[in-house]
TrEMBL record, chains A, B:
Gene3D superfamilies, per the entry: Glutaconate Coenzyme A-transferase
Protein name as annotated: Citrate lyase alpha chain
One GO term describing the cellular component: cytoplasm
Substrates-to-products reaction catalysed: citrate = oxaloacetate + acetate; citrate + acetyl-CoA = (3S)-citryl-CoA + acetate
Molecular-function GO terms, alphabetical: citrate (pro-3S)-lyase activity; citrate CoA-transferase activity
UniProt lineage: Bacteria, Bacillati, Bacillota, Clostridia, Eubacteriales
Organism this protein belongs to: Desulfosporosinus lacus DSM 15449
Amino acid sequence: MKTILGREIPDYIEGYGHVRPFQGAFSDVGVKTRTAVKLTSVIPNDQKVLSSLEDALDKLNITDGMTISFHHHLRNGDYVLNKVMERLAARGVKDLTVAASSIFPIHAPLVEHIESGVVTGLVANYISGPVAEAVSRGKLKKPAIMQTHGGRARAIESGELHIDVAFLAAPTADNYGNINGVYGDAACGSLGYAVADAEYADKTIAITDHLVPYPAYPIEISQVFIDYIVQIDSIGDPKGIVSGTTRITKDPVALIIAKRATEVIKASGLVREGMSFQTGAGGTSLAVAAELKKIMQHEGVAGSFASGGITGYLVEMLEEGLFRSLFDVQCFDLKAIESYRDNPAHQFMSASMYGNPHTKGAVVNNLDIMILGATEIDTDFNVNVTTGSNGVIMGGSGGHSDTAAGSKLAIVVTNLMKARLPIIKDKVITVTTPGDSIDVVVTERGIAVNPQRGDLLEKLKMTNLPLMTIGELKLLAEKITGVPKGVETSEKIVAVVEYRDGSVIDVVRKVSSVS
Amino acid sequence: MKTILGREIPDYIEGYGHVRPFQGAFSDVGVKTRTAVKLTSVIPNDQKVLSSLEDALDKLNITDGMTISFHHHLRNGDYVLNKVMERLAARGVKDLTVAASSIFPIHAPLVEHIESGVVTGLVANYISGPVAEAVSRGKLKKPAIMQTHGGRARAIESGELHIDVAFLAAPTADNYGNINGVYGDAACGSLGYAVADAEYADKTIAITDHLVPYPAYPIEISQVFIDYIVQIDSIGDPKGIVSGTTRITKDPVALIIAKRATEVIKASGLVREGMSFQTGAGGTSLAVAAELKKIMQHEGVAGSFASGGITGYLVEMLEEGLFRSLFDVQCFDLKAIESYRDNPAHQFMSASMYGNPHTKGAVVNNLDIMILGATEIDTDFNVNVTTGSNGVIMGGSGGHSDTAAGSKLAIVVTNLMKARLPIIKDKVITVTTPGDSIDVVVTERGIAVNPQRGDLLEKLKMTNLPLMTIGELKLLAEKITGVPKGVETSEKIVAVVEYRDGSVIDVVRKVSSVS
């Protein structure tokens, strides 16, 4: 069986099930269902605060084969997943599926639970560090399922991803389960990725180190979705949760890329009143924001919104009137947290509102300009941000596919070569985002426009930008680096890459060299 | 068939269906289901703003027998329900059920649609004015269904009340359907009663007279729940939406009642750190707040929250530090709207979060003190706020039953006689709220404690308050007024009174004298 992109995928994958192959970014639309939810009603005088995590695990009655979920707002400072898994392992529970919105290096102890069979399934939008390596080595019994941020919300809301128990790390909680991320030692700001878990899991428990008098405010997740609350000493390490500041790159090559990307944006005609913009927190991405800011200021343009994970840099643009509002699914730095807490124009969005394709309209649908990264791009503009050039999992879509699909202008910014390897290939090892969603690739040596965007190409021809075909760009790099040899993979599928609509866009196979 | 209160109810009511008789305030608890929702996904470049209401009605395809819904935040200034119904009547649609959270005198044109068969069903939490009279006269084909604020949210979320199309009056909306009530000519503040409609209707349309650039903020109801937006000239008359200020009564009898109610509160021991409080917007209710405020200030007590429909008076208490937060399901005056807009401690709550008994914990569950009104009370403490002493519908539960059930101390404040008729009866004409939920009745002549609250009676005996039994209180009034003759009713059931859990607590029968 082949996807519309020509990738070979089995029609049935052991441990995953029947495969619905990817058929195009908007092939699966129309009438959709948000699933029914069972809940246990709470009456006056019922107590939700439990004495300990052990007490909670007794009440939650987690049994072999269940799916438990976590959100990743505490990023590489998260203590909650590890603490919960340690206790569950000690209880002898087996065959759990961990549905975490993302997995970071701090979650290394999960590898042991994978090896011991406590965890046999993993569903995440992004996996990095030791767990990613363990999955790539084929240690997980079932293939990992890699989703997008919007796709995860869709999967949960549709009932495709059923969560038995959601563990919600809560920087602040009151005794009835009202939660926010803006106060407490582990403050992380927006809790956008946790919303679907809270709303759709059979049971939900807030784990907090900052229990405040009722009612907490602001309320990001309401008491009506929380069964229990447990207080522990610490839910996370602030140093791993947010950076103090996010900085623009000083690398001269990255600055050239950023400048060119901004010229592409300008030439596209999208720098206009009401424009919208999203970029990541990486140095090059922020440099694009810095360049774009100059143009917006120069042209006196006020945008409508910036969205996504929010940095202090976007906050400054908001405060300077360059955007009317921010949509924040997670805060990347302290300045973003403070702004989100204090400025009503800096708004909350759930992962579903952000990028779920099966709602009445996600925020990405209104996005004009999206700045994206890539570990590989192929000559069909397909992008890989899931595996490294060695075929080992080192990330995942996150919001990549969601924003690429929604935005009017999706720009991949990347060095033409990284670690002496070319970025552009005939075929990417893993397709994360389909080429149809990518409009242009900007490198320090040249710019390639997707042939489907003849309109954009015409506009860019009016500039002095170094335009070339993606094939030419590929050759340019290969002249310097030579043609890299392909990665050899075995038949074993270690991860299934789901597109945002739940179809399978690719699989990750076990790399022969990493055994 | 009898309810647990001994009211005779048929086990099947034509036009309503099988009856589940009321069995006690918390008899229907445990595992509950929030129903599945079908929605049509929206993709980039889909336009949600339609050119006119006519265009919208074409798209919405409303056919005979459907249920359409409205919220009542524009109260007696609402133009939306009338405009929509006028257009639907012109289109010849028949047999509609109107599920409006409340019906006011301004909705008088609905009577014509009832008479002509355009509307044959009505579901509401509160009905006053000409529509109430028309229902009482038996003009509606099916019995009206009268719910509570929390019960309506429960009915919608459970799927019991299925809404085909929700019409959402939106004081502010953007072109993707983000809605708030705090800006625009028809600003009304919180849109708490509209949330379940938006989330669970098959189709939703925002009708606004204030279309703002994307994205609107704050967002009370998200774009992900809105199919279409239509702009019209005016959605409501500000004079009918909010009062400029809400005032405390100057009536000396009401002030005595308020003072005594506050002494009851004080004696109950509930004036303490973290206390919570709710009262209505009526003069006597506000007078209780004023008295309570003095005591809280005197004792240096800081409460946790006040809730419900919010008035400027509660805003002042928030601002003076007497409460840490307000939970606002609707704003009664301009001061409340401004506070709700500007003060993060003044928080939004949906009707479901307010009072739905089938969530993981409504706000009413945490309520200490609730001040309630009554048109009649019987010697079992059952309260009627649905029908007048003539048996004609003049209101409904609203949040009466929800708050009475949830609160630790539910106090009915009322004059012992109104319009020369005694308020306390052997049996109320219609039971709205069961006596079990009522703790004490405070009148200007005496105070009666529910015998189930022996603990409270003991505390009140330590005061000089004029305690008596409810029977003694009844006799006291009858000595002055004589025993009123009962209202004669026919067999015909004109309204079914649903308790918050969806069981039937009573029925309203057609009054013989109003034919």
